[in-house]
Amino acid sequence: MPETRVPRRRRFLVCEPRHFAVQYAINPWMQPDIRVDVDLAQEQWQALIRAYRSHGHAVDTLEPVAGLPDMVFAANSAVVVGGRVFGSLFHAPERRPESTHYDTWFKTAGFDVYRPESVCEGEGDLVWTGRYVLAGTGFRTTREAHREVQEFFGHPVVSLTLVDPYFYHLDTALFVLDDDNIAYYPEAFSPGSREVLSRLYPDAVLATRDDAAAFGLNSVSDGRHVFIAPQAEALAAGLDARGYVPVPVDLSEFRKAGGGIKCCTQEIRS
Ligand code: ARG
To answer: Ligand 1 centroid vs 2 CA: distance in angstroms?
Structure first.
């Protein structure tokens, strides 16, 4: 019998995809000027918010801004641990203006925001495990930023190198299941980083390239429920066998921009 998993209530920050579009290409999933069905995107996104709320999670929203088509990807705006907000400095000039709006939201909500000096893209690459930060580099967030993150939070930061451009953010290749375990796609990482992950998490749930390409690793877990792309079937079955409860939420329209469930979700940890 698999273990009974206990959920923990979360607080999420999200941004409605009212102005969602693909207007530039900054990752291999994006084809500039591909048509995006904004109504479908809105429906899919609303279903995600309903799924969070119906599982007892608190959801805060921030107003989207016209001309910032990737602003829906709230995860990239910051990483928040213990009520401390480490803001973002986007790699792509097109996304840099998003930071002002997110910073304003955090300040209005009563948080101070640290402005980093080096390129870093929030929870896209900086993943809090409950004990330390797993930090991706290779495509976006820099190693200098990893040092800044460690200095700011005073928590250990474990640098991991991403090697596959389709999995350009750490949160496309790995997610945290609970305080003790993670799921990831090993081939997205350099050999040394793979070894680090297997030492830290000998019992991790390993995903295939198909699971990863379906954005199955761009999932959100509350410790029991895993909000996951329905196309990541093998991974969902693997999670189920370990006692987690997959909650399928289809964000297929966001794949055109290289995003999924986690990308749309910023966790606020007080
Ligand atoms: N188009 C966005 C970008 O390339 C997608 C961001 C996805 N976010 C994430 N947390 N992986 O920046």
So the answer is: 34
Distance of CA 241 to the CA centre of its chain: 24
Does a structural domain hold residue 170? yes
Q: For the whole model, what pTM was predicted?
A: 0.98
Q: How far is the CA of 93 from the centre of ligand 1 (A)?
A: 13
Check if 103 has its Cβ closer than 6 Å to any atom of ligand 1: no
Q: Is 129 in the pocket of ligand 1 (CB under 6 A)?
A: no
Ligand 1 contacts CB of residue 169 (under 6 A):
yes
Q: Specify the CATH number for the domain of residue 127.
A: 3.75.10.10
> Cα separation of 251 and 10, whole Å?
20
Question: Residue 261: which residues within 8 A CB-CB, separation 6 or more?
Answer: 48, 215, 218, 219, 220, 227, 228, 229, 249, 251
Q: What gap in Å lies between CA 127 and CA 117, rounded to an integer?
A: 19
134 lines ligand 1 (CB under 6 A): no
- Measured in Å, residue 27 CA sits from the centre of ligand 1 at 8
Domain-located, residue 6:
no
* Residue numbers of the domain that contains 166: 11-267
Ligand 1 binding pocket mutation candidate from 168, 169, 171 (most atoms within 8 A of CB): 169
Mean pLDDT of each 10-residue bin along the chain, 270 residues long = 91 98 97 93 98 98 98 98 98 98 98 98 98 98 98 98 98 98 98 98 98 98 98 98 98 98 98
Active site residues: 169, 263
Which amino acid type is present at position 226? V
- Kindly provide the ipTM of the predicted complex, given to two decimals: 0.97
